[in-house]
Amino acid sequence: MLQIDLWKRLLIWTVVALGLALALPNGFYSRVEGANDARAAIEMGSTDAALEAQAGQWPSFMPSALVNLGLDLRGGAHLLAEVRVADVYEARLQGMWPDVRDLLRDQRDTVGTIRLQPSASDELRVRLNERPEQASRAAELVRGLARPVVTLTGAGASDIDVTVDGPDIVVRLSEAERQATDDRTVQQSLEIIRRRIDEVGTREPTIQRQGADRILIQVPGVGSAAELKQIIGTTAQLTFQPVVTRTTNANMPAGAGNELLPSIDEAGTFYVLEQAPVVTGEELVDAQPAFDQNGRPAVNFRFNPTGARKFGNYTAENIGNPFAIVLDNEVISAPVIQSHIPGGSGIITGNFSVEESTQLAVLLRAGALPAGLTFLEERTIGPELGADSIEAGKIACIVAGIAVLVFMILSYGLFGVFANIALIINVALIFGLLSLIGATLTLPGIAGIVLTIGMAVDANVLVFERIREELKTAKGPARAIDLGYEKALSAIVDANITTFMTALILYVMGSGPVRGFAITLGLGIMTSVFTAIFVTRLIIVIWFERRRPKTIEV
Amino acid sequence: MRLRLVPQTTNFDFFGKPTLWLGISGVMMVLAMVSFFLQGLNYGIDFRGGTTIRTESAQPIDIGVYRTAVDTLALGDVSITEIFDPSFGPDENVAMVRIQAQDDQEAVSPELIASVEAALQQAVPDIRFVSVESVGPKVSGELIMTAAIAVVLAIAAVLVYIWLRFEWQFAVGAVVALVHDVVLTIGVFSELQIRFDLAIIAALLTIVGYSLNDTVVVFDRVRENLRKYKQKPLREVLNLSINETLSRTMMTSVTTLIALIALFVLGGDVIRGFVFAMIWGIVVGTYSSIFVASVVLLKMGVKRDWSKPDGNAGTQFSNIDA
Questions:
Q1: For A218-331, where are the alpha helices, taking DSSP H only?
Q2: pTM exceeds cut of 0.80
Q3: Does domain A86-178 have CATH number 2.60.40?
Q4: I need a surface site. Which of A35, A350, A378, B218 has the fewest CB within 10 A?
């Protein structure tokens, strides 16, 4: 009969209360957002009375998670970029030429003179001028330059394929190396883009890798996609500059041809540097975290041939002097040159932890994007359009809600009121869940909520209609209510599971706004089933226990 | 006095002319397909690539001026439409400029957008570009593929679920109804040349879900009545089931329509096409769950012996208690 255990009642009310509490911050959106921003700023170390006051706008014991607003509601820019991974192959192969040249020059007695041939961008073609018959021997030598590639599948694969084509030796990157390179290139691009956008300091940018070689960038509050592209396109400036002196005086006069720059990790330390760099980051080919001969974390780097020559000459002349590695006008480190560094590769040592050396390697590589970007999709949504959409969506939600509420009361009287209470709880639960999982609300998402308002009554309607039917035949009101719930259940479950499946498919297959719609639709189905079979039922049972009516009218 | 959309007990004969209903639906579907193949859909940039620019200006819009400005750039097919919406203020004059994807390039070109904006700015000094969206043909091709796969997957998933929970005849009935709804919706979009973009695919899938919801409620009752009235002919059982659930079907459709109409009128022009698709889908979906799914079920016949205890019994969820 109509009985619900106390613990079940408590559980249901707890879930409802929790949902309402989680939804509450969204009712005071701008105030909570301001307070959250202020708190984040305080955590970052800034202290300011105005910030404190702003943080106090929303009590800290209250939930403060908000529904994220999608680009179509907040305005901003969206870019889908494809990384031209093949750009990197050419640079890699060209970087190998000096090694190949030096190697074969040492063996001139066997292979004779050699010359680099013009070729497709993904291969390096070297001709043996005097002794073409020695090509296979030369290829054998060049193969000795190959380094192993560490991948999950291709263990033991080497990074280059060397083949013989008549008098030519052809060097190509191996398949395994290409894959590893592609992956690294995209990862690097992602890192650089993230760094650049973070520097601009906008709120909640989305920077995601999509598929093998694509990057999705969504930044709210940026004026246009063109502006966003400009931010991404700015090259971080990496330079190697001679150090004049080190100081703690921020106002020290630098002198002619010099400049005063702060240290990146030692607050209060400044360096006076010669303005003309020895080498710039444009000439850097690679940087990897490594360990020095004492086993301390360090960073290995490599220059292209011109950079290598300049760097070699400079280090030969300045052993014992410090030189500074400068990124975007901040000194990353200022090591002392220990020895002449020929060949263009070197190692930066310092007081690094492993994390720091990794970070530094990333920063060094992040000097410039490793490969060009092709923009496949770009969207700019003006903030006014977003604000208009929110306003329109809000009004539509309210009107739709009121119309449905009135309609339910007209159709079912008191039971309609019960269903309406459940409906309001339902909408609050959707917002609570959206905030909890940090989902993004988009314009189609709002449509999903409106649709849910319409469909959420469905489960209640099914039950009420069933109760009506049972009242015609059954024994009493309590029995009718009980049977109504029992018999309507299979229809409710089947109907909602099928709709939920389509929401799930939408979520998996969809992107952007469509995915936002799928989330609200899916959550709406869960909450509407919960409210219909638990909340409404509990309300009806409580009412029934109080009143004990002899007859009911549904 | 309660509001009743349909009388408390009804006894309509829904199967008086089953062939007629199937015929009407069949003709409608053929018309929809003819329209689709003759006119094609008015694909948005999501599906065929290109650029749309939404402009706003305080001056009344003279399409001729816009067109002259853009035509000097020779960009091929350019469409310019003015948008009207009750929510716009008197000095909000909104237009959409759509430029086709330019040949021989995979990506969007910023120069093109900049040149169009400059040309328009010169023609209409106070023009503002509220939103600019650009999709390269490479992505749009993939989006079409994904969308088609999503719809097919959804229908397949439904087929399997209903087959497991009911009988295969029910699943076929439901899927025929779904295909009917999807085809008719696509037909309306091609006939009225409403812009068909990614959001419409979401609407299509929702229609699939909604129509199914309706169909499943009817089928659930059919299953129950088949057990209850073992001797009644299938036709009468189906008719009884539809009559019994008619009140609920109408209630749910009407409440959903109320909410959607509010959104259609007040929700702004950006999602109007999307909402229109849903409204149409709910009308068609309600029709199809009564007149298509059940008629197909009647034509196919169904296993009558529900007495043996099997895992498909509809009561397996009924011991859930609040």
A1: 225-233, 305-317
A2: no
A3: no
A4: A350
